């Protein structure tokens, strides 16, 4: 079920991609790229076949791809904190797939969530690539204001950092709000926020989601209980396990001091499920569990885990399109695209 | 290192090739002042900073990486070719590689091969991996023959596969011994009708050392190898694992243990067996291969082989960085060869001896 309405863009027209031409002719994307961009060596018959297919299918070169192929490095830099973080891995897979279908290669620049590395990527002064997709974990609007003449870049992720760049953000606050509402609707009254941020006012993914958690509770006329907002040092399964195990031992009577968990990262939820199982608590009978996540682990775990899932494919598509437009038009109004998340219900919540 | 594409109409041919000296001349300041501004260091007056910045912008000067690359003749980028970044084992391996590369001051260009043998074979010519200093390939389809025919044009290291061709370095655990150890463990736990879930088209590839180790393990114990109990899967995914055990319980209902040659298959199998009404480990034991993070947290927790992923990433990236460096420094390194990484059987609930 969609957490909120998709943007009223009215459906995108079907775009013929280089991959489609390649498939029609039965050659590789690279061969089509060579013909379209007059690079490399392609035999005459293939050139004719590709041109015929280009005409027939109405293919128009992606300006980013054409720009890259004809002028510079054919490459987009994808700068993420790492693959084990949030929805980075599925997002990366989507970016690889979509970019490579256009004959563009992707360099992954791990930032480790380090401010200096994020800024270095945005300066993009090494000619490493022609455009940057960055998931900002540490940089602030202030950093971006000080950035001298940055290259083309699109910021992508949960955080929205004001500044000169186009952005594609997932609507995490709204999604967290919907997840808590779902738990309350299903009878939960004490919802643990696992991996939340106690301090208000931050703009990390955790802070944005915590905001949504508080909003949902307030909207339902409940007062958020600070003891149920559990911070974790990392988002690992281990951290989730330890945190929930500790909460369970807090009351000596063996009563469960909560009846639901919203985990802000999926590994935390797997740790939580493990702790609940170890303590003999039934999920969803005694405790319902929801997690932000995109992993297959959720679908195949026992019980299957209800997730709040980012639409990484749409995010990747929109980000690449924005980068393309930025490359083609240079100075143009800044675009801020928001992509909704989706809740997929499985066994860990009452249906 | 030609022009950026951001400024419409900018003449790309003249941009990007400017030197520190060009910027200094245009701004009318010293080279060290430019350097300070470019790096955001030193005490530079705002008016001067602005003038230098204007010159930097006008000339499209790029410090740091470009200069470093010109000095070293290297790109400081590693290529990593692996089947997919969403399969848990490969994702965790890639993450280890990213961290190791960072330790060496390198970034990583990743390409997904989707297990296509042509992409694995042509990895040195892969258009997506141009300009990298060296390539780390994680093959799943490449055979010994392909390896001999491989054109190696830059430092190449193969991880999680062993090749005796000797023209490239390879890192892997002893898969044969590891699989044999798994079967011995299951036999010790009283299991006799041990099935295998193996990636491969019709039957698991004879080149999959894990499959051969499984067969050897059965022979060690004097147990027959039953084709009915070998289920091949097209992919190494959760869905494939769940599907394979559905097939298995129909085809060979007597099965009392499953060795899945990949943790994603094993995790899918746990779920598939539960859906088929079989208990693990009561009715059927399950053992995986890979020791992904989820293995310690799934229900029941998964017994699996830890093939030394972290160690492999560490050693492979270090060696690749060394080989890349040696190309420009002329340093002499040992001939390429195979490097064995130790494995460990991690015993958890899924293969426990069923209690009475």
Report on this model:
The complex is a heterodimer of chains A (351) and B (356). With 351 residues, chain A is α/β, with parallel strands linked by helices. Chain A has 13 helices and twelve strands. Chain A is elongated and about 80 Å long. Chain B has 356 residues and is α/β, with parallel strands linked by helices. Chain B folds into three domains: 1-63, lambda repressor-like DNA-binding domains (434 Repressor (Amino-terminal Domain), Orthogonal Bundle), CATH 1.10.260; 75-173 and 309-341, Response regulator (Rossmann fold); 175-307 and 345-351, 3-Layer(aba) Sandwich (Rossmann fold). In chain B, strand 3, helix 7 (144-149) and strand 4 (156-159) form a beta-alpha-beta unit. In chain B, helix 1 (20-27) crosses helix 3 (46-59), helix 2 packs across helix 3 and helix 8 (175-188) runs parallel beside helix 9. At the A-B interface, helix 4, helix 5, strand 2, helix 11 and helix 12 of A face helix 3, helix 4, helix 5, strand 2 and helix 10 of B. Strand 2 of chain A pairs antiparallel with strand 2 (107-112) of chain B, so a sheet runs across the interface. Chain B: Keywords: DNA-binding, Transcription, Transcription regulation. Chain B: It comes from Streptomyces iranensis. Chain B: This is DNA-binding LacI/PurR family transcriptional regulator.
Which terms would index this structure?
heterodimer; A: 351 residues; alpha/beta; 434 Repressor (Amino-terminal Domain); Rossmann fold; six-stranded parallel β-sheet; 15% strand; elongated; disordered N terminus; B: 356 residues; LacI/GalR-like_sensor (chain B); DNA-binding LacI/PurR family transcriptional regulator (chain B)
């Amino acid at each position: 079920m969609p957490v909120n309405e998709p943007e009223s863009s009215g459906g995108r027209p079907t775009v013929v991609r280089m991959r489609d031409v390649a498939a029609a002719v039965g050659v590789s994307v690279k061969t089509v790229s060579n013909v379209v961009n007059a690079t490399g060596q392609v035999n005459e018959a293939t050139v004719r076949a590709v041109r015929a297919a280009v005409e027939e299918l109405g293919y128009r070169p992606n300006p980013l791809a054409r720009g890259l192929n004809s002028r510079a490095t054919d490459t987009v830099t994808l700068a993420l904190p790492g693959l084990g973080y949030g929805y980075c891995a599925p997002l990366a897979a989507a970016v690889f797939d979509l970019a490579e279908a256009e004959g563009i290669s992707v360099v992954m620049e791990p930032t480790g969530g380090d401010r200096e590395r994020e800024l270095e990527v945005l300066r993009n002064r090494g000619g490493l690539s022609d455009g940057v997709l960055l998931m900002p974990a540490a940089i602030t609007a202030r950093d971006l204001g000080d950035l001298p003449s940055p290259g083309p870049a699109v910021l992508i992720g949960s955080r929205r950092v004001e500044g000169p760049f186009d952005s594609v953000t997932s609507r995490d606050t709204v999604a967290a709000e919907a997840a808590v509402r779902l738990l309350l609707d299903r009878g939960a009254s004490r919802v643990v926020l696992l991996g939340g941020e106690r301090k208000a006012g931050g703009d990390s993914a955790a802070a944005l989601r915590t905001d949504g958690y508080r909003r949902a509770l307030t909207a339902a006329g409940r007062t958020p209980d600070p003891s149920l907002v559990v911070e974790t040092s990392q988002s690992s399964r281990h951290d989730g396990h330890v945190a929930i195990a500790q909460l369970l031992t807090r009351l000596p009577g063996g009563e469960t001091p909560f009846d639901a968990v919203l985990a802000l990262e999926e590994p935390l939820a797997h740790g939580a499920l493990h702790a609940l199982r170890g303590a003999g608590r039934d999920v969803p009978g005694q405790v319902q569990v929801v997690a932000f996540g995109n992993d297959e682990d959720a679908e195949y775990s026992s019980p299957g885990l209800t997730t709040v899932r980012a639409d990484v494919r749409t995010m990747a598509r929109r980000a690449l399109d924005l980068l393309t437009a930025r490359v083609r038009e240079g100075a143009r109004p800044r675009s801020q695209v928001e992509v909704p998340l989706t809740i997929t219900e499985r066994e860990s919540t009452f249906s | 290192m030609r022009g950026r594409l951001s400024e419409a109409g900018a003449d790309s041919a003249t941009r990007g090739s400017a030197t520190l000296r060009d910027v200094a001349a245009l701004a009318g300041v010293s080279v060290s002042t430019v350097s300070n501004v470019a790096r955001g260091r030193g005490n530079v007056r705002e008016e001067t900073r602005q003038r230098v910045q204007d010159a930097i912008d006008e000339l499209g000067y790029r410090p740091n990486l470009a200069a470093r690359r010109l000095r070293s003749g290297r790109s400081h980028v590693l290529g990593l070719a692996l089947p997919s970044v969403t399969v848990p084992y490969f994702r965790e391996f890639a993450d280890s590689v990213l961290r190791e590369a960072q330790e060496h001051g390198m970034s990583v260009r990743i390409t997904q091969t989707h297990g296509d043998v042509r992409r694995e074979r042509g990895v040195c010519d892969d258009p997506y991996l141009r300009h990298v200093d060296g390539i780390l390939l994680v093959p799943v389809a490449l055979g010994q023959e392909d390896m001999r025919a491989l054109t190696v044009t830059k430092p190449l290291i193969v991880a999680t596969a062993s090749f005796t061709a000797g023209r490239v370095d390879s890192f892997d655990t002893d898969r044969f011994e590891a699989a044999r150890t798994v079967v011995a463990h299951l036999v010790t736990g009283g299991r006799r009708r041990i099935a295998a879930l193996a990636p491969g088209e019709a039957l698991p590839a004879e080149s999959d050392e894990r499959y051969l180790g499984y067969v050897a393990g059965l022979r060690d114990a004097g147990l027959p190898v039953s084709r009915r109990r070998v289920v091949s899967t097209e992919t190494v995914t959760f869905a494939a694992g769940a599907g394979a055990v559905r097939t298995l319980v129909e085809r060979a209902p007597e099965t009392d243990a499953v060795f899945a040659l990949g943790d994603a298959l094993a995790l899918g199998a746990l779920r598939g067996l539960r859906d088929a009404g079989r208990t693990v480990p009561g009715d059927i034991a399950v053992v995986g291969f890979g020791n992904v993070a989820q293995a310690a947290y799934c229900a029941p927790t998964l017994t699996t082989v830890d093939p030394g992923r972290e160690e492999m990433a560490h050693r492979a990236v270090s060696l690749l960085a060394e080989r890349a460096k040696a190309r420009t420094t002329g340093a002499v390194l040992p001939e390429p060869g195979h490097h064995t990484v130790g494995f460990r059987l991690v015993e958890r609930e899924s293969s426990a001896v069923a209690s009475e």
